[in-house]
Write a structure and sequence with these properties.
alpha/beta, eight-stranded mixed sheet, two-stranded parallel sheet, 10 helices, 10 strands, globular
């Protein structure tokens, strides 16, 4: 992997179809735009119709002739996930970018009663990937890229308390959800390999990127001073979303990406061009991966075909 890889190095994506969750802002929007710039048909899977339509218009302004379309997807509602998958046109899908997420929110629950961070960051994407897997397999050399975080190191999963019912600590819950993303990729890659499938499951993280992810929680709580401090920190320290999206784009498009790889910024995992990223050993634990997989199938009701 070269240290200088950037958006200009994305291979031609003509004839390929990509779904990008959370494509209305931040690294999701940049990811969708750059895939469209290289010729892909991009589905912007977003919860808000207003923001999703605005992102669609933005991409079409930035990339004349872009094939980008908004479709509503609420990862906090499994009924919405099923509706999205059932209504998605076409029989094949080349790229699934599991990008959407929430971070360090006050305690809440999804429409199905799951703790919000675990429900959105992991279970919603687990269900979506399983429902779209037949189309990914039909495309042949397709890829699934799940966006985790360097902050997965805050906690491993607790298989006995996946929904943080005994005690909720927002940053621990966030770390668990991001560890779940990596364990999911590990187990999915293992199962795909055992089935001799050409579909590649990989993970990426943006490092410290300037997006609205950091400000959502303090905005929800009405903490104006804290929001201003976070925004100032983003301007002074964080890399722009344009750079933060590069690890995702690399994992999605670069030749030779290995199953279960974890790509992030090359400079201390915070900034810079894409490179291999360190991950906690518990994110490659086969036993934990199998337990999380079984629990995720039971909680979502989604069973992966032939895996």
């Amino acid at each position: 992997m070269t240290g200088g890889w950037n958006a200009q190095d994305i291979p031609d994506q003509s004839g390929r179809t990509a779904v990008v969750t959370g494509a209305n802002s931040g690294i999701g929007l940049v990811t969708a735009r750059e895939l469209a710039r290289r010729g892909a048909r991009v589905v912007l899977a977003c919860r808000s119709q207003e923001r999703g339509r605005a992102a669609e218009e933005h991409i079409r302004r930035e990339v004349p002739g872009a094939r980008a379309e908004f479709r509503r997807l609420d990862l906090a509602d499994l009924a919405s996930v099923r509706e999205f998958a059932a209504a998605l046109p076409g029989s094949r899908l080349d790229l699934l970018i599991n990008n959407a997420g929430v971070m360090a929110l006050p305690h809440g629950r999804t429409a199905d009663g799951f703790e919000t961070q675990f429900g959105v960051n992991h279970l919603g994407h687990f269900a979506l990937t399983g429902l779209l897997l037949p189309r990914l397999r039909a495309a042949g050399a397709a890829r699934v890229v799940s966006v985790s975080s360097g902050l997965h190191v805050l906690s491993t999963i607790d298989i006995r308390d996946l929904n943080s019912e005994r005690r909720y600590r927002r940053w621990i819950a966030y770390g668990r959800s991001k560890s779940a993303n990596l364990l999911f990729v590990h187990e999915l890659a293992r199962r795909l390999g055992a089935a001799n499938s050409p579909v590649v499951a990989a993970a990426a993280h943006p490092g410290y990127a300037d997006t609205n992810l950091q400000t959502r929680a303090v905005r929800m709580e009405g903490r104006g001073a804290a929001e201003r401090i976070v925004k100032l920190g983003n301007r002074l320290v964080a890399q722009p979303a344009e750079t933060g999206a590069l690890p995702t784009l690399y994992a999605a498009t670069a030749p030779g990406v290995r199953p279960d790889s974890f790509t992030g910024p090359s400079l201390m995992g915070l900034r810079g061009a894409p490179g291999p990223s360190w991950r906690a050993p518990w994110t490659r634990d086969d036993d934990a991966g199998e337990l999380l997989w079984a629990a995720s199938q039971r909680l979502t009701g989604v069973t992966y075909e032939a895996l």
